[in-house]
Amino acid sequence: GAELTIDGIRIEVQLTPGTEAPSEMNFYFPDYRAVCMAENCAATLHNVYTPRGAEIRDALGWSRYINEALESFIDRIDVAFASHHWPRWGTSDIEAWLVGQRDVYRYLHDETMRMANHGMTALEIAEEMVLPPAIGDEFFNRDYYGTVNHNVKAVYQRYLGWFDANPATLHPLPPVAAAAKLVEYMGGAEAILQRARGDFEAGEYRWVAQVVNHVVFADPTNMAARFLQADALEQLGYQSESGPWRSFYLTGAQELRNGTPSVPGLRNASKIDVLRAMTPEMVLDNCGVKLNGPAAVAESVRLTFDISFMSPTGSAGSAGPTGTAGSAAAELVTLVSYRVHVANGVLSYGTRRRGPADAEIRTTVESLVKLASVATTLDLELAPESTSGFSLTGSRGKFEQFLSLLDQFDLFFAIIEP
Fold first, then answer.
1. Is 341 in a helix, a strand, or coil?
2. Which of 171, 190, 274, 333 has its Cα between 20 and 30 A from that of 212?
3. Phi-psi category of residue 130: left, alpha or beta, with phi > 0 → left and psi -120 to 50 → alpha
4. How many CB atoms lie within 10 A of CB 52?
């Protein structure tokens, strides 16, 4: 309900945290009788859980906030628009849209939990769930992006997690070991493929993709299995109403035929622009994720650093490159300093200092991000001609040991084979 005036435009803000994004909001423009529904409403069913991977969204809260927007704005708007798709004009069309979007997320939430309380599992509920025609037949609620099946599983997982209470699924064999045993139990790869080809001809594409994947995991070099599963995945992709589902199916088929893509050099450059905007705490947390815990434990690593994060502007993060002409370490402003520990395969940090540190480091967010991502070297950062402001006092070897323990993550990885 807060009202801001930005460049002479009055904007009324409706905060909607935890809906399409953790920090989300809608905007009402009173002088134009217009409301922006951000990404909370679209011309399609959205994802409660996005298949690319993210925190599961709150379908119940999402529905409530759309209802709040409906009650707050419907009597004073002539047009509603969003971050994607086209605007909607007139009270009746706007109200039908908002009501339909409100009800689809509420129905998915409440029906999933109703059936879960009857003891049904996520897979069972997803197979049974059908939207009422008044909701599901609306063009803007169709599965063009998110899907009913996928969203049901997301609602279930948000409340009940991955375990379906069946002890047989409590501690199953991992995929490769299970695949080898299943192939053995079913009489070998050729016996499976013979039956799977018959199922393919009968149009049982979901089953073919599922059962032949065991053969691929048991023996990724079995090209007959790879090609048959690829054929099944392509058929599933062609039939998918959802764009993301189609993309996953067809990408899987492509990888079965051609292998996992490899793009050397893309690993580091693709993320530096994003990572340089992080806070110092985010950078240290990122280093903690990248720290190879087993390797650090095997080497009995115990390291202590005092790291001071610097900025030429005093901002929370480094908004851009600091190595511009005329910049120097003396001009940098200290943002925050932390005592960083590496022990027991864990990186931790805080403000309590006890005993000497192995090294004292002054760095910008960008410099540490580049070092942790192997986008630069310690030699370059410490060179006399460097203008990054990076400095190190104490044991260089200890800091180099720390950097050597940080894993690097490739952009691509296998999704259809071990």
1. strand
2. 171
3. beta
4. 9
Per-residue pLDDT at 415 exceeds 90: no
Residue 250 neighbours by CB distance under 10 Å: 17
pLDDT per residue as tens digits for the range 208-244: 999 999 999 999 999 999 999 999 999 999 999 999 9
Assign 268 a pLDDT band (cuts: 50, 70, 90): low
What are the DSSP E strand ranges found in 251-318?
A: 303-311
Distance CA 208, CA 197 (A): 8
Confidence of residue 406 (pLDDT cuts 50, 70, 90): very high
First vs last Cα of the chain: how many Å apart?
51
CB of 316 closer than 8 Å to CB of 251 = no
- Cα(329)–Cα(386) distance, rounded to whole angstroms? 10
β pairing state of 34-36 and 79-81: parallel
Does pLDDT of 328 surpass 50? Answer: no
**pLDDT over 60 (residue 200):** yes
Give the confidence band of 305 by pLDDT, cuts at 50, 70, 90: very high
Helix axes 189-201, 223-239, angle to 10 degrees: 30
d(CA 146, CA 63): 15
State the alpha helices, DSSP H only, in 161-242. Answer: 175-185, 189-201, 205-218, 223-239
Q: Is 338 left (phi over 0), alpha (psi -120 to 50) or beta?
A: beta
Question: Which residue, 241, 39, 19, is CA-closest to 149?
Answer: 241
How far is Cα 368 from Cα 360, in angstroms, rounded to an integer?
A: 13
Residue 267: the pLDDT is 56
Distance, CA of 214 to CA of 45 (rounded, Å): 32
Q: Which pLDDT score, from 0 to 100, does residue 1 have?
A: 83
Q: Which two tokens stand for residue 8?
A: 């002479």
Pair 317, 259: CB distance under 8 Å: no
Strand pairing category for 303-311 and 88-89: unpaired
Q: Phi and psi dihedrals of 79, rounded to 5? A: -145, 140
H and E: helices and strands count for the chain:
17, 11
* Cα three-residue angle 251-256-258, rounded to 5 degrees: 90
Joined tokens for residue 116 = 């879960």
Is beta strand 346-350 parallel, antiparallel or unpaired with respect to 333-343?
A: antiparallel
Amino acid of residue 2: A
Does an H or E element contain 27, and which? strand 25-29
Task: Supply 406's token pair.
Answer: 């940080």
